[in-house]
Design brief:
299 residues; alpha+beta; 27% helix
Length: 299
């Protein structure tokens, strides 16, 4: 009987380790520091399993998954031509952060034009833990502070949830971070719920025919250091459509992909030159309004 009980206990542990703990964070942020009244909200997900964690936007994940499924369907039905339709609500947060256990090797994934970069984090949060406590939701949380990424942060962690992890790049406290806020109050992430799922969330790679590339999708992540990424970002802000022009011209010359976008007044355009101009205009307008990134040191 003892052997049976022991075997059952081991099986239960193995099953539990195979599960993913999914935590939902309400991320409130201000994109334009000159307009603090315009507070945006995004539902973020922190998935934690035995191998590590992944932090990403729920809306962006759904939009990408839907678009990938649509493209794969088109490839099967009409492999010679693809009509790319992007979601009207693709999510406001495009970055993703992963951490691998047990060393907590951290990587930030950022899309720049048609490429996705995997940026290795070369430092870790150094915490000062206070005796101060307060109730955050249903949890008793303890205060900790750190200087990281060009901001001063205050975190609240709970030992009721035994994961030394948290949203974005934050980790290393004796419990899960249930709330973290920067000193300006323009970036706030708060735990609002959690559940267990039996299947881990993974990005499904799309198999594009031949050498076809889709803007913002496909291809391998380009692994760079933080210094290398800063150079990439500077080049992109100087000429935001360079990579898109090269990729779009190659595909449109072969009549393999139809690119469409909409103007500010809702008109749909597909002429490549007009698309270039509209995308460059939108990109530069975006740079002006998105002047308060979560990590200023990376810009």
């Amino acid at each position: 009987m003892k052997k049976l009980l022991t075997s059952g206990f081991i099986l239960t542990l193995i099953f539990a380790q195979a599960q993913t703990n999914r935590f939902f964070y309400d991320y409130k942020f201000v994109s334009d520091i000159n307009d603090k009244a315009d507070v945006k909200t995004e539902m973020m997900i922190l998935d934690i399993d035995s191998k590590g964690s992944s932090y990403y936007s729920h809306a962006a994940f759904v939009a990408d998954s839907t678009m990938k499924a649509d493209i794969e369907k088109q490839i099967q039905m009409t492999p010679g031509s693809i009509n790319i339709k992007r979601s009207d609500k693709p999510g406001q947060v495009s970055f993703k952060v992963t951490k691998s256990y047990p060393d907590f090797k951290t990587s930030l994934f950022r899309k720049v034009s048609s490429d996705q970069y995997k940026i290795a984090e070369d430092s870790k949060p150094e915490w000062k833990i206070s005796d101060e406590k307060q109730k955050i939701g249903e949890y008793t949380a303890q205060k900790a502070t750190t200087s990281f990424g060009g901001r001063e942060w205050t975190a609240w962690f709970t030992q009721d949830i035994p994961f030394q992890d948290g949203p974005y790049k934050f980790y290393g406290l004796p419990g899960l971070i249930v709330k973290i806020e920067d000193s300006t109050g323009t970036h706030v992430m708060t735990l609002v719920g959690n559940k267990k799922i039996n299947t881990s969330t993974q990005d499904k790679e799309i198999n594009l025919p031949g050498d076809m590339r889709v803007y913002g999708m496909g291809g391998k992540d380009i692994e760079v250091s933080e210094d290398q990424f800063r150079k990439v970002w500077k080049a992109y802000t100087n000429d935001p459509t360079k990579n898109m022009r090269e990729m779009m011209l190659k595909n449109t010359e072969n009549n393999r992909v139809v690119f469409k976008t909409k103007t500010a007044d809702g008109r749909e355009i597909s002429d490549p030159n007009q698309v270039f101009r509209e995308m460059e205009k939108k990109a530069k307008e975006g740079f002006k309004k998105n002047n308060n990134p979560i990590e200023p040191d990376l810009q």
